Amino acid sequence: KLPEITVNRLSIYRRYVKSLLKKGKPLVTSEKLGRKMHFKPSQIRRDLSYVGQFGERGKGYNVKKLFQGLDKTLGLDRKWQVALVGAGNLGRALSAYPGFRQHGFKISVIFDNSPTKIGKTWLGVEIRDIKQMPKVIKEKKIKIAIIAVPYFSAQQAADILMRSGVKAILNFAPYKLAVPEGLKLRNIDLSTELQSLSCFLTK
Amino acid sequence: KLPEITVNRLSIYRRYVKSLLKKGKPLVTSEKLGRKMHFKPSQIRRDLSYVGQFGERGKGYNVKKLFQGLDKTLGLDRKWQVALVGAGNLGRALSAYPGFRQHGFKISVIFDNSPTKIGKTWLGVEIRDIKQMPKVIKEKKIKIAIIAVPYFSAQQAADILMRSGVKAILNFAPYKLAVPEGLKLRNIDLSTELQSLSCFLTK
Lengths: 203, 203
Ligand SMILES: NC(=O)c1ccc[n+]([C@@H]2O[C@H](COP(=O)([O-])OP(=O)(O)OC[C@H]3O[C@@H](n4cnc5c(N)ncnc54)[C@H](O)[C@@H]3O)[C@@H](O)[C@H]2O)c1
Ligand SMILES: NC(=O)c1ccc[n+]([C@@H]2O[C@H](COP(=O)([O-])OP(=O)(O)OC[C@H]3O[C@@H](n4cnc5c(N)ncnc54)[C@H](O)[C@@H]3O)[C@@H](O)[C@H]2O)c1
Prior knowledge:
The structure is a homodimer.
Chain A: H1 4-22, E1 27-28, H2 30-37, H3 41-50, E2 61-62, H4 63-73, E3 80-85, H5 89-96, H6 99-102, E4 105-112, E5 121-122, E6 125-129, H7 133-139, E7 144-147, H8 151-163, E8 168-171, E9 184-187, H9 190-201
Parallel strand pairs in A: 3-4, 3-7, 4-6, 7-8, 8-9
Antiparallel strand pairs in A: 1-2, 5-6
Helix pairs in contact in A: 1-4, 2-3
The complex binds nicotinamide-adenine-dinucleotide (2 copies).
C-alpha cells in the first residue's frame, strides 16, 4: 500500500496534470511539474514510478497516459457512492459541495437520528433514519462513509457502518474511533488543525 | 519547532488529560495514557518531555501540571481571534461550530465579496467587505485566518491576509498557495481525503 503522504502528492499531481490535459499539452517533464508544484523532480519521478508511469529522457511524460495512470491508482476511474452520517451544519456544507462529484464521489444517502431532519431532501438526496443504515448501505453496496455526528455518537455510527460493510471512513468528530485492522480511517480534527497554528505562533 | 505529527499527538493527549482533570484524577501514568489512546507509552513519555513534563517513576504525571504544560505549548492558555474569509456553505458551518471557542479560538470577523452577504451577521459576527480586510485585521491584531473561498480566489485572499499581518492560515481551497517562509500554512483538501480512501479500496 502507498504511504498516505505519497497519496496526497499523487492527488496534487493529478490536479495539475488534468489542467495540462485540458490545455491540450502532449508532454510534460518532471522538471516542469516540480517548478509548478514546488516538489523536487526526483521525488516526482519516484512517485510516478509507483503508478507505473515513466518519462522518456529529454522528452518527459505523455500527459494523457500520466493522467490515466494517476486516475487508476487513486481509484478515480470509477464512481463511488458515499454515505454521510449526520445532517447538521457540517453535513449540509459537505452535501452541497459540487467538488466531490467532480472527482467521482457522490453523497448518495444521508442518515440522521433527529425526527426534524429525517424525511427532508437535500439536493435530491433523502435524509433517512439511522436505523435504516444497515439495510440501505448493504442494498447500495456503499464502501465509503463520512461521519459528521457529535463526538458522543461517533463510535456508535462507526460500529453500525462497519457492520453494514463500509470499508473506509472519513471522520470529522473529535473522537479517537476504535476500528478493526482492515478498515481505512482518516480523521479530520479541525480544532487540532487550529491548534497546530496556535502552537506555531507560541514562541 | 515541534514536528506537525507531534503537535497532533499533543492535542489528542490534551483532550484525554482534560477529561481526567474533570474527573478529579490527581495522577496518570504513561502506560494508562497509552492504553486509552492507542499510543506507545515510550512515545508519550518522549512527547511530554518536549512540553517540559516528566512523570515520577511508579507514580506517573501530575494531571493538573500536565494539562497546564500541554495548554501552554499548544498556545491554548490564551484566546485567539480568527478571521474567516468566505461566507459560503463551509464558512457557515465553521462559524456555527461551538467547538472552536471551547479551545480558545473565536471567529471574530468574516469577510466576503458578495453584496448579498456583506452586512449580514452570523451569531453576532458581521460579514464585512473583503476590501476592509487590511484595516480590520490590523485593528484587531488578528494572526490566524481560515480561507473558505473558491480555489480561483484563494491566492488573492492569502496575499491580502499576509500583507495585513496574518501569520498562520488554515486553507480549505483546493489550490497550492504560494506563501513566504515565515508563514504557517495548513491545507485541508477534502477531495484528497476522499481520494486516499478510494486509493486504499482500489486493489
Ligand atoms: N461545523 C464545523 O465546522 C465542525 C468543525 C469541526 C468539527 N466538527 C465536528 O463535526 C461533527 C458535526 O458537526 P456539526 O457542526 O455538523 O454538528 P451539528 O450538531 O450541527 O450536527 C450533528 C448532526 O448529527 C445528528 N446526530 C446526533 N447523534 C446522532 C446519531 N447517534 N446518529 C445519527 N445522527 C446523529 C444530529 O441530529 C445533527 O443533525 C461534530 O462531531 C463536530 O465536532 C464540525
Ligand atoms: N463545502 C464543502 O464541504 C467543501 C468541501 C471541500 C472543499 N471546499 C472548499 O472550500 C471553499 C469554500 O467552499 P464552499 O462550499 O463554502 O463554497 P461557496 O461557493 O458556498 O462559498 C464561497 C464564498 O466565497 C465568497 N467569495 C468568492 N470569491 C471571493 C473573494 N475573492 N473574496 C472574498 N470572498 C469570496 C463567495 O461570495 C461565497 O460566499 C472552496 O474552495 C471549496 O473548494 C468546501
